[in-house]
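Appendix B. Raw example, untouched.
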Amino acid sequence: MGAPVIGVTSYVEESSTGIWHDMEAVWLPDAYIAPLRSAGGLVAVLPEQDPAHVADVLARVDALYLTGGYDVDPAAYGAAAHEACDAPRAGRDAWEIALVREALAQGMPVLGVCRGAQVLNVARGGTLHQHVPDVVGHDDYQMGDAIFRELGVSVLPDTLLARLHPLEREVPMYHHQAIDRIGEGLVVSARSVHGLVEAIEDPEQVFCLALQWHPEHDELTAVWDGFVAAARAHAAR
């Protein structure tokens, strides 16, 4: 069996590199995909495009990985925007919500990280806390200047995540939003030391897991190994 192909969502943002300045670019920090390569997966980047094409795109990959990025537009879950929210990326939101809905309808393995966890929850009808400091009273979850803060999480037993991660551990955090009302069919699989939802999953799927923290900046590999193994099994089916 060949290496499975993982479809990975990405930014489409103004960027500058070398002699090229202020141009629209498809890009993604390599940290997001390096663990997939190490686990034996191949990567296909899926920048935003017409959501009508999600079935055609997913027919060519074996799993879906929802990466991090800017805030999901609160309009996607029927809320007015908090003053701390990023400017909306409506095209990316629509594309990724359509991708994850179609992937789960097909029983395809899905992994979400940071924004990816929020996209999964919103796609299932859930909502978000738009500014975590309003909930917990401090900025520890997003220190700024790309500084990841190690905070403790408790993983719930008898979950997919519990088979891939220690039940108690500090993990790298960087988020100012978090999951509020849980989407339909999803369950909480980890909470932070302050009670925030830090992981969700769909127990009816073979592999549907989303982490609010950043496992790509963690030394543990079991989540990546498990995801790529699920993609390989999906490809075989």
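End of appendix B.
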